[in-house]
Every structure is written in C-alpha cells, then in structure tokens.
User: Which sequence fits this backbone?
C-alpha cells in the first residue's frame, strides 16, 4: 500500500456477459458510489469492447482480455492493439492464466504480445501465475520470477503496466489465500523488480492480487503493504465489485487492523 501508487481494480468479465448483462453491471456501477481514488477498469470480450466503452462513464477504463502481437494481417480470430484502440479502449490483459493453460500460451509468446502492445501505446495488465503444484513443490519464486523475467524483457514503459499475481490455487478452489500468503508473494515480486529492473520501478509499479477476491476478503487484503489492487473474476459480475472498488477507503475493524499490521511487520 503506497500513496504513490493509485489503487487499481480490474473486473474481468471473461466470457460471461452479453449486452443485457453489461447493461446490468454498468447500471450497478453508475448507481453506486465508487471511491474516486481507485482506478477502475473492466475486462471485456472483444465483440463488446465498443459497446462497453459507449455504456461506461469515461473514468472507467475498458480492457481487452487478449491481443495479438502485430497490428494487422492474415491472423483469423485474433485482434490487435490497433483494433482495440479503434474501439476506444486503451487497456489489455495479457498472460491471463486461462490463456496460458487453455491456449498453451508460452512466456515467450506473451512477451512478444506485451512488447507489441506497449509499442502500440496500450496499457497492459500483465499476469504472472502460480498453480497448486508449484505451490506445493515450493517453486513459487522459481515460476513467478521466470515469468517476470520474460515480461520485463518486453516492457519499455513500466508506468503503463500493472502486474497481476494470480494465485490459481485460490481461484474457484474453495481455498482462500491468507493476507500473509498474499503479502509474502507480492513483496517478493516487488523485490524482484528492485533487483532486476530498478528501485524506481519497484516503488511505482502497481502489483495487484487475483484469486477469489470478494466483498468478504477485499478490505483485509487491501491493507497489505505491497498490494495495490485486485484483478477480479467471478465477483466482477456481482454487487461485490462495488465493495472491492471501495475496499481501500472502507472502514476496517480494530482487530483486522492489528492483524494486518502484524502481517506487514513479519514481512518487512
Ligand atoms: C481470474 O480468473 O483471473 C480470477 C481472478 O478469478 P476469480 O476472482 O473468480 O478467482
């Protein structure tokens, strides 16, 4: 948590919306009081990018959930950063775990896509992921740092990148990551940036957490020292997204505060 890094929440709709559903979600967001100090973005299916952009107030960003690594050409089924921008959107999510697993996207491929998206002027939410087997085998650093290394080689402007740590072992599994577990990984990622990119990039890059974030756990997580926001999946379709956007500004109980302070001190 740093005053220099604006709290960032991206609600990824995945393949779970149509126009009617988008209207519902937009209505909910417009009718709710959203903390203006949180930067809010939605991850939208490509066919609804223009529609979502038209429906949402300008201060809410719209991200594509993927893009290809060149501007145009004979690449059936893909979209480019130039096309996303033509729909009025300037964000893209790259390296999402569902792209890595279902579509077998490699670190190298993601690196090329990030490089092209940056060159095209897009803002990127770059995901790094840890699955259950990696965690059980205590390979957290090894797998995340390898993904960070691949990404870092492709990033020309860190001020237009948000790094999302995806705890796959805590996404839709019924197991929740504890604040201490989240802080431990986020602090390692920030240290990696310090040691491998620069102190300035480590201090200013937003690192967000993904993995079953909801109304129930967002306030506690939002107090973590190295956490700058959330990438939200299923809760992005529900009323929860409002609480998650407002998590930083919300009241927390005294016992939550002292627990979080203990977590932060252990990790320092
Ligand atoms: C995700 O799949 O990126 C994700 C964060 O989903 P959920 O919030 O549902 O765990």
Assistant:
């Amino acid at each position: 948590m740093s005053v220099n890094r604006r709290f960032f929440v991206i609600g990824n709709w995945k393949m779970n919306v149509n126009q009617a559903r988008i209207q519902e979600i937009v209505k909910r967001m417009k009718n709710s009081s959203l903390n203006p100090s949180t930067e809010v973005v939605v991850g939208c299916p490509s066919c609804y990018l223009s529609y979502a952009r038209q429906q949402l107030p300008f201060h809410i960003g719209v991200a594509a959930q993927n893009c290809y690594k060149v501007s145009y050409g004979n690449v059936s089924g893909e979209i480019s950063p130039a096309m996303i921008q033509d729909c009025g959107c300037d964000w893209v999510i790259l390296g999402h775990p569902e792209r890595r697993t279902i579509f077998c996207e490699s670190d190298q491929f993601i690196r090329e896509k990030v490089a092209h998206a940056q060159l095209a002027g897009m803002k990127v939410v770059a995901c790094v992921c840890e699955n259950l087997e990696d965690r059980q085998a205590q390979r957290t650093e090894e797998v995340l740092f390898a993904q960070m290394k691949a990404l870092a080689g492709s990033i020309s402007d860190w001020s237009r990148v948000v790094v999302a740590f995806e705890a796959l072992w805590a996404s839709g599994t019924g197991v929740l990551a504890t604040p201490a577990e989240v802080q431990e990984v986020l602090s390692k990622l920030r240290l990696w940036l310090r040691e491998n990119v620069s102190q300035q990039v480590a201090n200013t890059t937003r690192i967000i957490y993904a993995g079953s974030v909801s109304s129930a756990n967002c306030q506690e997580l939002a107090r973590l020292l190295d956490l700058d926001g959330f990438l939200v999946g299923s809760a992005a379709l529900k009323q929860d997204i409002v609480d998650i956007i407002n998590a930083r500004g919300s009241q927390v109980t005294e016992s939550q505060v002292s627990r979080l302070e203990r977590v932060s001190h252990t990790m320092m």
